[in-house]
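User: Fold this; tokens only.

Assistant: Input:
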Amino acid sequence: MNLTQSFRLALKSLATSKMRALLTMLGIIIGVAAVIVITSLGNGMQQMMHDQYDKLGANLIQVSIYGLGAGNSRSVEPDDMYELASQYPNYLSGVTPSVMAQAVVRVGSEEYEKTSISGVSEDYLGMSGQTMAQGRYLSYVDVDRAKNVCVIGAYLSQEAFGGGGVGETITLSGVPYTVVGVVSPLASQMNQGGQDDSIYIPYTSAMRLSNTAMVSGYIFTCPGKDSAPTAKAIIENRLYETFQSSDYYFVMTSAEMMDAMNTMMSTMMVVLVAIAAISLLVGGIGIMNIMLVSVTERTREIGIRKSLGAKRANIRSQFIIEAGTTSAIGGIIGILLGVGLAGAVGALITSSSGTPFTAIPAADSVLTAFGVSVGIGVFFGYMPANKAAKLNPIDALRYE
């Protein structure tokens, strides 16, 4: 019996007991579908992060300062960072203090719980690549005098002021702030708590609002991605001169942030895929059990074939091909199911978050999942096939 005949016989055997075949494949289907969904969503998440990274710019450098230095006598002021940027214009093209403030945001009697409040300088607009939709951005005078003025995001403008807002008043923890401008939308879909649900105030006002005397964050820009490592080294050297220890600050470029996120995502995907692979193992055990039952049910058939001259290799290959065919069909169904579920979950994430998200089934993941499913069927099908091949033809013919 050649390979084609064995394959046709395997399909015929599956067709005679469709429900049993489907239940046999179930573990393989679930395992393969889970692997496809996880890898597709992971690839989509990484692509979304890369898109956000491109929007933010590959030339950003984040600086975090944890507190005062040794003896609580060493500190860095905004003027020090401005002076550093002016000393190295070829490597540091811009800088802004960054203060995240916590406050209750109200417009009239309406409270906006998820709106973010960022304290920045007048240079942040150009550094972030944002554009103004209405009014003006923060000015040097606003920052220098710690004025109670703010620039709002497109979501807050739409929800609170019907698309306007310039000249209106927002209260932050009871303190009135006058809206002087509205920035253009950053995301394709505006939603609560998203990028467009934001307020920008002078960092000096944010320090007063947060009751802090020290700026703990700075954002630098460099002329290009290639100059980022040198720019980072310049900043670190300057901070080390002040603190005399690297324990009091942390400097990270956009590229390093993206690498860290990719590493974290890859690790998480490996763990989740390993968990999903347990279903494949269960599916393989199910195939082995059903094949053992099949061998028992077809004992007389095996005896007849052996009495007609079939060799052990012929019997063994027939049952192995049948097990591999079962797992292969289950793998194909699992791939189709996984791709469909991944697309549905991606659409759900897009509709709920407002951020475009596309699940990306990778060809290597699909081929690997299919190959593993077939391999598991062949591996777990070998023992029943070998048992069938070793049957004594006389005993098999006499089996009832």
